[in-house]
Amino acid sequence: MALSGPIVLTDNRYGKSENRIVRFHKENARHEIRDVNVSTTLRGDFAAAYTDGDQRQVLPTDSQKNAAFVFAKKPGLDTIEDYALALGRHFVETVGPVTSARIDVDSFGWQRVSVDGTEHDHTWVRRGPEVRTAAVTVSGEGAWVLGGVRDLVLLKSTGSEFADFLEDEYTTLAPTRDRVLATSLTVWWRFAESGGVDWDQTYDGIRATLLELFATTYSKAVQQTLYAMGHAVLERFPVLAEIRLSAPNNHHFGYDLARFGILNADEVFWAADRPYGSIHATLARADAPDAGIAWQP
After folding, report:
1. What's the pTM?
2. 158 vs 19, 27, 163, CA distance in Å?
3. Choosing from 10, 41, 61, 209, which is the catalytic residue?
4. What one-character-per-residue DSSP string does the chain give?
5. 251 a catalytic residue
6. Is the pLDDT of residue 290 over 90?
7. CA diameter of the chain
8. Looking at 133, 209, 225, 251, which residue is catalytic?
9. Is 122 an active-site residue?
C-alpha cells in the first residue's frame, strides 16, 4: 500500500551526552570524591531547527555541558539524585523553549586505599564493575526520579535449577536440577515522590535486598528470581512505585574432563559469554499512578 499523507516531525530532543565530571570535596584533610558521567536531554519548541535550520530557540549543547560542570560545584554533588533534580529544574525554569529536561547520571564507585590498616585521606581504588545510576525528568508538571544500578555481577554455584520446561521439535536442552546461576543485573526503580527521600540510604538498602534475595531464593528459573527480588524491594521500600529488572543468564557449562580420565564433580565450568538468555521483569504497585514520562529518553 502506497502512503501519500504529509510528512511531519513527530518527535525531537537533543542534548549533551557523557560529560565526565570528577568532583573532589577538600574542606578538610580527608578528601571525598564524586566521579560521574552526566548526560542532558532537552525537549521543547525546537521543531524549526530541524525543519528550517532555525537555531534561535536552541540552547547549544556546549552550554548544557558548562551547566553540568557548574552544578557539580554549586549546589554540588552530594547525591546524584539531588544534583540531577537541580540541573533539570535549571533548564526548565530558565530556558524559555524547554518544556522538559532529562538528566542521566552514572556514578562510579571508589574505595579508599588502606595503608597499614588505616584509610588514606586522598587515595582511592576504583570499585566495579557495578555502576549506580539515576535519571531525573523535570517538566512544568513536576519531577520524576529513577534510581538504579547496572553491571551488578552476581553468581551462585548451586541453589538453581531449570527443568519441566516447554519442548518443541528444536529443543535439545537437557533439564537440570542443579546449575550455576550467574548474571549481570540492570535494575531501575521509580520513586513515588521526588523529594523527602534519603537517596543514599535507599540505594544501599535496595542493593542489599537484591543481593539477599539472589542468594537466598531457591531458583527454578531466572524469571522467578527476578520476581522475588523485585517483590522484596517494593515490599521493603514504600517510597518506590515501580521496579524494572533485566538479567542476562550467563551460562556456565560443566567441562568434559572425563576424556582425560578426570572426574569433574560440578567443579570446573566453561563460562560462555554468548549467546545468553535475556530475562526482563517489571513490577509496580497497583495503585501507583502511571508515569510514562519518567521512562522517556
Report:
1. 0.94
2. 41, 48, 15
3. 61
4. ----SPP------EEEEEEEEEEEE-SSSS-EEEEEEEEEEEEES-HHHHHT---TTPPPHHHHHHHHHHHHHTT--SSHHHHHHHHHHHHHHH-TTEEEEEEEEEEEEEEEEEETTEEEEEEEEEEEEEEEEEEEEEETTEEEEEEEEEEEEEEESSSB-B-S----TT--PPPBSS--EEEEEEEEEEES-SSS--HHHHHHHHHHHHHHHHHHSPBSSHHHHHHHHHHHHHHH-TTEEEEEEEEEE--EEE---GGGT---SS--EEE--SS-EEEEEEEE-TTPPP-HHHH--
5. yes
6. no
7. 76
8. 251
9. no
Say whether the peptide bond before residue 6 is cis (omega within 30 degrees of 0).
no
The confidence band for 253, taking pLDDT boundaries of 50, 70 and 90, is very high
Letter for the amino acid at 133? T
Cα distance between residue 189 and residue 205, in whole Å: 13
Cross-strand partners of 32: 25
Percent of the chain exceeding pLDDT 90 equals 96
Q: Is 16 a catalytic residue?
A: yes
For residue 246, CA distances in Å to 162, 186, 187, 227, 276 come to 18, 5, 6, 11, 13
